[in-house]
Amino acid sequence: MKITHSIYTILLAGVAFGFASCGASGDDPGYEYAPQMYNSVAYEPLTQIVNEDEGSWLSSREDGKGEFFNSNVNNPYRMNMREPVANTVPRTKDGSLPYRLKAFELEEAAKIQNPIELNDQVLAEGKALYLQYCVACHGTGGEGDGKAGEVIGGVANLKGGAYINLPEGHIFHVIMKGKGRMGAHGSQIPQDRIWKIVHYVKQEIQKQ
Ligand code: HEC
Asked: Which domain of life is it from (predicted)?
């Protein structure tokens, strides 16, 4: 009886110790199971372990450095990534420049010209996109009478007096960043497609 008790006690203590040793806190990652799964042997672009002794207890490297050392000494700042070539300009997926104007910078936006050349195919695409993204609120004819528009209320009538002369850059900006009760669509529609919608709104809805 006594022996069984002692065995249970020792087992329990062992399990408790096992759980306690797994704990990670602060800068201590705790014990890792199969650490090579976490610390890649290949250069990882977004990690950089500059301590040459890191993981030396496990190391099988021929250069004598720690197994986890992961830093490219030939790159600037010993980064694993290369720096972009000087004067590199970032582009979005569709090849245009990132749009940096803030939601309130409507006046600046109004000066931007539509970079997409107008033709029948562009108009057809603009129409399809308008039907996809705008009709629910603005209605087929752009008069603000879409089904969702009826619920939301206050949807702009794109044919109405104040809106008919809106510059193309302004319309682009409103779609991109939203305005008042209209939400931003910039994260859903790529820039080149927004410009096609703008062509459609100007040419077919506003007949400008
Ligand atoms: C969820 C409903 C909704 C959707 C979807 C929507 N709009 Fe709007 N839109 C509105 C509302 C509401 C306003 C009025 C905003 C305000 O002034 O408060 C508005 C205003 C506008 C204006 C006038 C901006 C100004 O300067 O006052 C334009 C232009 C416009 N929308 C174009 C579009 C186009 C093009 C699409 C499709 C990409 C679209 N909207 C999608 C609800 C919507």
From this structure: Bacteria
pTM over 0.85: no
Nearest atom of ligand 1 to the alpha carbon of 180? 18
Q: Are 37 and 28 in contact (CB under 8 A)?
A: no
pLDDT at residue 6 greater than cutoff 90 = no
Q: What range defines the domain where residue 192 resides? A: 106-205
Q: How far away, in angstroms, is 82 Cα from ligand 1 center? A: 43
- 118 in the same domain as 84: no
48 exposure class (CB count in 10 Å sphere: 0-12, 13-18, 19+): middle
Asked if the structure places residue 4 within a domain, the reply is: no
Is residue 32's pLDDT more than 80?
A: no
